[in-house]
Amino acid sequence: MSVYLYAKSIILEDTERTNAYLEIKDDGTFGTILEEKPEGTIIDYSTYHLAPGLVDTHIHGYASHDVMDNDFEGIKVISEGLLSCGVTSWLPTTLTDSVENLDAVCETIGQHAGQESGAKIQGIFLEGPFFTEKYKGAQNPKYMSDPSIEKLDKWHRLSQGLVNKIAIAPERQGVKEFIEFANSKDIRTALAHSDATYQQAKEAVDAGANIFVHVYNGMSGLHHREPGMVGAALNLKNVYAEMICDGHHVHPAAAEVVMKARGPEETVLITDCMRAGGMGEGLSQLGEFEVVVKDGTARLKDSGSLAGSILELIEAVQNVLAWGLVSLPDALRMASLAPAKSVGIDHVCGLIAEGRPADLIVVDDAGQLIATYLDGQKRFG
């Protein structure tokens, strides 16, 4: 028998249904949306909103585990923990590291993906190693190089096709051919950790790159005579702009500039969360670097540079809402549908639609998480 969730609103791809009933079929998929009260079991969320489960396409770790630990038991812990962040789908995200370590991580995830019981692995994001030292951020420059088609092909193969996003610096050698190869494998190319000129970024986008990673952070800034990576992220057509909206990486006014330029359809909320997420303050680790977690930030112990974040994706939704930048529906879409579209997984996650797995969240007017459902089962809240 179907169960019906009654809510103040149901947030769909480009509209909302108010005071309606969402059917959850007994096979764990979404059914129809009804205005009239149906027969059967009804769960009353009449003061809340139903939205798609959030999709984090850029996250390194959580709950003291990191993707680069190469331990699928740790991946399972991250997967479970993400349900408390409103996330039901994610891309385990690697760091710039040795080829051997990246080989091993891709192979491990490829062999075991699907065994996680929390948020679903919908691909792998390789953040590096084809970056520029000047904007290395918390990435290790000793492993950086020009893009290699051969390496990407191996990672894709080892992951059993799960690698579906890779970030590169567009000023490196061989970028055009690399992006064309990535596209042939249905891998989205993102641009990041780069000192590229506007023209170099444009050429990468013309070749098929479609995402700018954590805009403003780790990239050449906007200058009126050289718009740089930031200018390209704001101005080029048909690209997605990721942002870490934790209030530390990007000023709310700077976030508003991106949202005005890209709109909620092409603005992607990410966390870039590392293993200290959900763990409170103290010492932590990111790759080979020691990190200090304090006052809502994770910073490299030696330099004080930001080292990813401890942001939870539902908090990013709450922040952009509290900053007065967008409506609740658009804030939620920027953390679900937009990220899913950016990496071509919106056919399996990111929106509420009949026949899809019933992965959804229940939130209040301020975006506070009330419940998380996975395959129609309440798993958090």
Topology:
Elements: E1 3-11, E2 16-24, E3 30-34, E4 41-52, E5 54-59, E6 61-62, E7 65-66, H1 72-82, E8 87-94, H2 99-112, E9 120-121, E10 124-130, H3 149-158, E11 163-168, H4 175-184, E12 188-191, H5 198-207, E13 211-212, H6 228-235, E14 240-244, H7 252-266, E15 267-270, E16 282-286, E17 289-294, E18 297-300, H8 313-322, H9 328-333, H10 337-342, E19 360-363, E20 369-374, E21 377-380
Parallel strand pairs: 1-4, 5-8, 8-9, 8-10, 10-11, 11-12, 12-13, 13-14, 14-15
Antiparallel strand pairs: 1-2, 2-3, 4-19, 6-7, 16-17, 17-18, 19-20, 20-21
Helix pairs in contact: 2-3, 5-6
What key phrases describe this protein's structure?
TIM Barrel, 2 domains, 381 residues, seven-stranded mixed beta sheet, alpha/beta, single chain, nine-stranded parallel beta sheet, globular, Urease, subunit C, domain 1
Q: What oligomeric state do the depicted chains represent?
A: single chain
The number of domains:
2
Task: Find the count of extended strands (DSSP E, 2+ residues).
Answer: 21
Shape: globular
Note the total helix count.
10
**CATH architecture classification name of the largest domain:** Alpha-Beta Barrel
Q: From the helix content, strand content and strand pairing, which structural class follows?
A: alpha/beta
The CATH C-level name of the largest domain is Alpha Beta
Low-confidence stretches: none
Q: How can the largest sheet be summarized?
A: 9 strands, parallel
How much of the sequence is in beta strands?
Answer: 25-35%
Percent helix among the residues? 25-40%
CATH fold name of the largest domain: TIM Barrel
CATH-assigned homologous superfamily of the largest domain: Metal-dependent hydrolases
Mean pLDDT equals: 95
How far apart are the termini?
23 Å
Task: Work out the radius of gyration.
Answer: 20 Å
